Amino acid sequence: MTLMSFEKRWAHAGLSAIYPERAHGVRVTFDHVDASLDETMLVVPWRSGMGLRIAIWMVALSPIWLLMRLGTIASVRAVDRQRALGRLISHRNYFVRQLALLFKAFGALWVFRDVKLREAVLRRGERLITLKRKDAGHAA
Amino acid sequence: MPRDEETESGVKARYADESYPVDSWVDGETVTNDIDESFDFVVVGTGAAGAVAAHTLTCAGFSVAMVEEGPWIKTREVGEDVYGVFKRGMRDGATQAIEGRAFMPLLQGRAVGGSTLVNSAIAWRTPADVLHDWSKDFGLGDTLSEEALAPHFDALERDLSVKSVDDDVLGENNASLLVEADKRAIQANAIKRYEKGCRGEARCLTGCPHGAKQGMNVSYVPWSLAKGARLFSSCRVDKVIVENGRAIGVLATTTHVFRARATRKRVHLRARHGVFVAASTIQTPNVLRRSGLRSRDIGEHFQAHPGIACGGVMSSPVHMEFGASQGAESTHFRKTDRFKLETISMPPELCAARMPGIGTELMDKLDRYPNVAVWAVQLRAEAKGTVRKGWGGRDVVNLTLTKNDLTRARTALGLMARMMFDHGAEEIWPGVYGLPSVMTSADQVALIDDAPLDPRAYSFVATHLFGASRMGPDPRSSVVGLDFATHEAKNLFVVDSSVFPTNLGVNPQHSIMAIARCAAERVAANAKRSAVA
Q1: Which of B81, B103, B394 sits opposite A112 (nearest CB)?
Q2: For residue A81, what are the domain limits?
Q3: Total domain count for chain A?
Q4: For chain A, N or C: smaller number of CB within 10 Å?
């Protein structure tokens, strides 16, 4: 099972609402998302692939049924994307909520393939600085 | 520590999974012809049970074939991102789930080494109370007594270097749980693990990049190859061949992770003395069904240890990327409340999936990742479920947690939340639908005590799996006899956690390995005796 290009566009738009491109100096890129979507659809069983596709369609059409906006997730403003995704994630219907969480979880796996993003979030350097300060304190 | 050894090809081998006879490994992804070979024993699965059984049989002088559905992911290939290991080394790309009243993600390794490639290598001997119950309530007698298993635990602990997490690699996430438990007089300890030279990079869950974690992929599998066994990876077992009530081999088909329609080759492995099935609690029942076994008990009595995590932002740095992935635990409540507390250092992507919110709210939390701590509850659920064969041959696992299970999970979550606030958490994320997704004061934790007893409100993940082909003396209520052979087919042995009559309340890898070793040793002794006769 493969995704169509418009489905990938919807996935991009949905993910950009969950993981906005710029926040706190952390730059999120979506360079790996297309390839990851293709690979994921190839690796997972048919049923899981269908679940992911339904999640993407649900996200895509969420502005219509949650915000009463005529347009897909890719065509509404960034603030409306976030509103729509926010409502999906906390929706009272269990299946809607689970599909939205599935989309968010897979999005995290794809987005964090970016080494720069990972390093920016981990901030390993800070830990080393803390350790050096501690060592210096002990030496003194 | 990694060893530098000369391999047959003359290349310096830094890790154990690079040091084995060159023709001992058949990679199904590259096979171009059908295969037909004969061995004394064929072992299905290379996880904790299969690898240990294969090694024991090989050491006893038998020729052994190991068949594994997944690929062999070598230490040098291990990356840091979770996606890399999920797509290649996890069953169904980590999309497998237990169905019931709620979905519960089910994480199983599908690679050489099985789940030991991606678990935290935690070693726990089977608790005495569990063995006692098995003996008395399930008719196992002395088959799996403490005395019978002790020499096997001893041997495994020597081979795999079991030791408590060193202070040097404990890390703040683990240390903080120990400190808080101590304040409350809750018995807790550093976890005992299989490791040689852990660097504390918190990467157990994506496969150890240094070969320090002693998963089966870097221990018993290559050790078995060095002693003459053969490994057939990326080969899915279609069925065990049973003729005249006796297992005589297996039929498998080559697979490829990324090429579902790749040219499939047939692999026929004949077994002179028997077939060991160690394909895991989920896959073993369906392998038995596909092999023609018809016991009504196949797939019944399935149990698990559902896990639920509680995250929080601490006032001081935690740096989960440093320290043992899982380095601290408490079994204080195992007998009274059937739960175990433990730490789990989550990489950023898993943390992001677990963090509440989206957009800027989520990015704010990710920005505070260095201060994030995650602890978890492992529940010894009383619920029983089933493993069935679904449409297209897929495994269908069904389990719904009981009210008692949910009450205990709620109690444990509340305890963890209070401990986190006592340790200086600025906020915690209980992850229970219907409650605030972010709690900022200890007063709010009381809400958890009244959380709904509906499994759909919680985010459980299942990792430890038991039963579904359980052992017992009576063919009417069990699948496998006390000699580890199925009641229906001779020489067809089941040695994984599917034979466990119940769950344990502690991490099962050590028990699985000891029981597999015990079984293989007994079967090998019998095979030698019958050969002499």
Answers
A1: B81
A2: 5-114
A3: 1
A4: C
